[in-house]
Write a structure and sequence with these properties.
397 residues; alpha+beta; Rossmann fold; Phosphatase 2c, domain 1; five-stranded parallel β-sheet; 10 helices; 18 strands; 23% strand; phosphoprotein; Serine phosphatase RsbU, regulator of sigma subunit; CheY-like_superfamily
């Protein structure tokens, strides 16, 4: 093992160096703490020091303190200090400075060698832990980078247009500290119908995000313009709009949890007739949509089971008649289950009150106001869950 002896008495230092060399150690020497510190800074492979306590220029206590507390040498150094059995005050001072072991100068050289080898085992254990820590840090950095890329990809999958014939949209999407599984989208099915949905995959992290990406793909039309929401027919008009409940039932059959995978998702799926304002919805374990009319906000709650939790479930749809200017808000539970410092939820009631007070604002300004309220309400800079709101306004005929 490579080690450093720091001792101002040359004869003592030479005798120790010779003895330890015979035990197979590579020994460097310093006459005081300052010289020893310089050697340690220039020889990063030295991780064991044997030092006297009383020396000119810089004593052993200061050398130990500099190594242990100020960490001028960026590595673990095992520090053995000379002492006598009755040097209680010096031993206490050495411990406070960070010394790892003590030995008398008069101790047999075989005992000193044994203590060195014991210290060497601790050094190697520390080095192994440090190597594992570095691997973990690299792995964590790689995972963190993957999560950031996934978050960027998630944001790119969100809608870009804000208006379809007869309908305007606005949305709010804020990711939690951990990558989540919220997803929403809207699209035109034909000249009379548009579809929109918002879903929330259980859990956090890449598995939830990957399932939300997959669901986005499944809900999107194929190259021929068909999807689970628009079924191909052999006769004119060669397609039919699938009832929102049948869409959810299809997803439930396709995305059943398997084995230890208990992943499921909640959603609201909707189809709006842009000519009549008739809205058909299916609610599957998800918070009820909020319907803002000219003078009130109505919560629609006809809940069903989350998707993928149980096989062979039947889902139902219900209808809501919109008037021109009415708005529908789909949202994830990250909105209402946002907690403040006293662990109080933001809640549906507070959400409804905010919409009522901001009725005369555009949907975009409404959502900005709600986001500001949630930021003030939330504990800390990051949300515990994804916060997603999709706002839809029917413009009427």
């Amino acid at each position: 093992m490579k080690l450093l002896i720091v001792e101002d008495a040359m004869d003592v230092r030479m005798v120790l160096a010779a003895a330890l060399s015979r035990f197979g150690h590579e020994v460097l020497q310093a006459a005081d703490g300052a010289e020893g510190l310089a050697i340690l800074q220039n020889n990063t492979s030295i991780q064991l020091v044997i030092s006297d306590w009383s020396m000119p220029v810089m004593d052993g206590f200061e050398l130990c303190r500099r190594l242990k507390q100020e960490q001028q040498v960026e590595r673990f150094v095992y520090f053995i200090m000379f002492s006598s059995n009755d040097d209680e005050e010096r031993i206490i001072a050495g411990l406070e400075a960070g010394a790892d072991d003590f030995i008398a100068k008069q101790a047999p050289k075989a005992e000193l060698n044994a203590r060195i080898r014991a210290g060497g085992r601790l050094v190697e254990l520390h080095n192994e832990l440090q190597r594992k820590q570095e691997k973990l840090e690299k792995a964590y950095a790689s995972i963190e980078n993957d999560v950031m890329l996934a978050a960027e990809m998630h944001h790119k999958l969100l809608p870009t247009i804000r208006e379809l014939p007869g309908v305007q949209f606005s949305w709010l999407a804020t990711s939690s500290a951990l990558l989540g599984g919220d997803m929403f989208d809207y699209r035109r099915l034909d000249e009379h119908h548009i579809s929109f949905y918002l879903l929330d995959v259980s859990g956090h992290g890449l598995p939830s995000a990957l399932l939300s990406f997959t669901l986005k793909h499944v809900m999107s039309p194929s190259q021929k313009g068909f999807s689970v929401m628009k079924r191909d027919l052999p006769q004119p008009p060669y397609y039919e709009i699938v009832d929102p409940a049948d869409v959810v039932a299809t997803l439930n059959d396709r995305f059943q949890s398997q084995g230890d995978n208990c992943q499921y998702f909640t959603m609201v799926n909707a189809v709006l007739n842009v000519k009549t304002g008739l809205l058909k919805l299916c609610q599957a374990g998800h918070p009820g949509p909020l319907h803002q009319t000219s003078d009130e906000v109505i919560e629609h709650t006809q809940n069903g089971f989350p998707v993928g939790m149980l096989p062979d479930l039947e889902y139902g749809s219900y209808e809501v008649q919109l008037a021109p200017g009415d708005r529908i808000y789909l949202y994830s539970d990250g909105v209402t289950e946002c907690f403040n410092a006293t662990h109080e939820e933001f809640g549906v009631t507070r959400f409804i009150q905010s919409l009522q007070h901001q009725r005369d604002l555009s949907m975009e300004l409404q959502l900005q106001s709600i986001k500001a309220q949630l930021d003030r309400w939330n504990v800390g800079p990051d949300f515990d869950d994804d916060v997603s709101i999709l706002a839809v306004e029917w413009l009427g005929l």
